[in-house]
């Protein structure tokens, strides 16, 4: 009887020790990305065999193998079909090795956060505005969460300083603020708002962002008219191409914005002849590996599948952008002062009305500029009610309205200011958005990595064979053949 407590204690210690071993292994994989890549490539190829991609059944096998090899609990990952749809970045209908790599990496990070309670644990530096090197210039705006001020830094460069009063901030709000900062730091792209730092003093939390003086999509047309800009088809084409570039890039980093709308699409400068688009406000953006669910977003822009499942998918951002395009081309951007309701808000007096309109209302595409037939056809594809029928951002960029379809295969989203024909994707991203110390801040699996790994495996098998006795030569397992260039190309993946 006396031994029972020690037995229980020893069992508890054993369980704790086993959990510690699992979390240590995860920590190693998340920080030593090569080890994680080796694991992913080996498991992927054991399932895919000679194929370059896997279907949803194959994804289930990959997840099972990862769970078994790492000793993870069965609920470590999210819903299988949700993952399958979210991480199919290019809309091909199957997952390639780099998509599987990012899926697993994000889920392992989410599991690590749940086990260690990482969310909200890292500290926000404490310093005054003066100590941070900022000088107040003027107030730019005020909202429910706080004020937005124009400031200059030590170099005299203008910065947008968002000030959040601590009296209005709950712990959950602080967690959300940290996650917004984290998301914007990971998404370092010309078409996505730049965030530089976050700090606090006695009264406020501060987030330092780049300043954009060109207004947003609500005011784009009036500003362009004031400058006498010819808003022809080519002008609109350059603008909307930048929007899809931003979505393509963001989705390949396994992030979903969840609140694409006119106020969150800014213009960098007041040069409206050649507007530069920037996406802002990542307060409710979601990592694709997150198990969080909920509508989020803004009524009238939320896609049908999210209203039904309370889950966001990359195609949801595309739907929201379709709403934006339709409303801009028909002058139906929601505006209470002008009594304009918007595509799926007009005539609605309740949330139930909005949900019903989003699910069943057919947009009046005939109201769009009739001479822009290609844009009208594209917008119809963006607003498809069913997620599986809707274009992904890479496919939208290949739409005939933007340019003649190319033979390019998207291996990596190129984040750049490009208004010409869609370029052939590079094998590695020179700007390298994910190069920090964050566990998710990393390049993906490059072709050379797979090539070197296969060669190492072949060399190892050769060494094993040579060490076998001559009597066992006939029974020894032969090493796999070195892959041909053609086979290697089949596994070309993104940075």
From TrEMBL:
Residues annotated as domain Protein kinase: 134-402
Biased amino acid composition, Acidic residues: 459-477
Protein's GO biological process: mitotic DNA damage checkpoint signaling
Annotated Gene Ontology cellular component terms: cytoplasm; nucleus
Family matches, as SUPFAM superfamilies: Protein kinase-like (PK-like)
SMART domains, sorted: S_TKc
Molecular function per GO: ATP binding; protein serine/threonine kinase activity
Residue numbers spanned by region Disordered: 419-440, 454-495
InterPro entries listed in its UniProt record: EF_Hand_1_Ca_BS, Kinase-like_dom_sf, Prot_kinase_dom, Ser/Thr_kinase_AS
PANTHER family in UniProt: OVARIAN-SPECIFIC SERINE/THREONINE-PROTEIN KINASE LOK-RELATED (PTHR44167), PROTEIN KINASE DOMAIN-CONTAINING PROTEIN (PTHR44167:SF18)
The protein's name in its UniProt record: Protein kinase domain-containing protein
Species, as recorded: Noctiluca scintillans
């Amino acid at each position: 009887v006396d031994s029972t407590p020690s037995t229980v204690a020893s069992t508890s210690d054993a369980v704790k020790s086993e959990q510690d071993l699992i979390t240590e292994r995860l920590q190693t994989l998340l920080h030593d990305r090569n080890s994680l890549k080796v694991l992913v490539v080996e498991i992927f190829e054991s399932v895919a065999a000679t194929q370059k991609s896997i279907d949803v059944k194959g994804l289930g096998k990959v997840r099972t193998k990862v769970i078994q090899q790492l000793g993870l609990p069965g609920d470590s990952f999210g819903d299988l079909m949700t993952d399958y749809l979210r991480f199919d970045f290019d809309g091909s209908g199957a997952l390639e090795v780099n998509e599987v790599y990012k899926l697993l990496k994000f889920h392992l990070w989410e599991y690590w956060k749940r086990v260690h309670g990482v969310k909200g644990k890292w500290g926000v530096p404490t310093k005054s505005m003066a100590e941070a090197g900022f000088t107040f210039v003027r107030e730019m705006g005020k909202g429910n969460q706080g004020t937005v001020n124009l400031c200059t830094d030590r170099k005299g460069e203008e910065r947008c300083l968002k000030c959040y009063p601590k009296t209005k901030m709950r712990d959950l709000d602080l967690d959300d603020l940290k996650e917004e900062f984290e998301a914007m730091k990971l998404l370092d792209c010309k078409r996505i708002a730049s965030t530089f730092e976050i700090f606090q003093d006695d009264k406020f939390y501060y987030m330092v962002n780049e300043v954009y003086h060109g207004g947003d999509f609500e005011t784009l047309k009036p500003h362009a008219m004031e400058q006498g800009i010819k808003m022809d088809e080519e002008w609109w084409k350059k603008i909307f191409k930048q929007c899809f570039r931003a979505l393509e890039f963001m989705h390949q980093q396994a992030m979903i914005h969840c609140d694409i709308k006119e106020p969150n699409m800014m213009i960098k400068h007041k040069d409206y002849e050649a507007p530069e688009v920037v996406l802002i406000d990542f307060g409710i953006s979601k990592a694709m590996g997150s198990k969080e669910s909920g509508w989020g977003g803004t009524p009238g822009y939320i896609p049908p599948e999210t209203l039904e499942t309370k889950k966001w998918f990359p195609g949801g951002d595309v739907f929201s952008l379709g709403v934006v395009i339709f409303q801009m081309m028909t002058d139906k951007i929601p505006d209470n002062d002008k009594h304009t309701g918007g595509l799926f808000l007009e005539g609605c007096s309740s949330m139930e009305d909005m949900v019903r309109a989003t699910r069943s209302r057919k947009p009046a595409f005939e109201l769009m500029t009739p001479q822009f037939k290609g844009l009208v056809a594209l917008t119809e594809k963006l607003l498809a009610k069913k997620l599986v029928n809707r274009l992904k951002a890479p496919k939208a960029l290949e739409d005939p309205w933007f340019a003649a379809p190319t033979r390019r295969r998207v291996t990596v989203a190129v984040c750049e200011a490009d208004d010409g024909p869609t370029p052939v994707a590079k094998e590695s991203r020179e700007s390298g958005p994910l190069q920090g110390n964050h566990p998710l801040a990393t390049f993906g699996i490059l072709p050379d990595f797979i090539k070197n790994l296969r060669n190492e495996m072949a060399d190892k098998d050769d060494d094993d064979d040579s060490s076998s006795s001559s009597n066992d030569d006939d029974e020894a397992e032969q090493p796999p053949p070195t892959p041909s260039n053609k086979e290697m190309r089949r596994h070309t993946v993104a940075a």
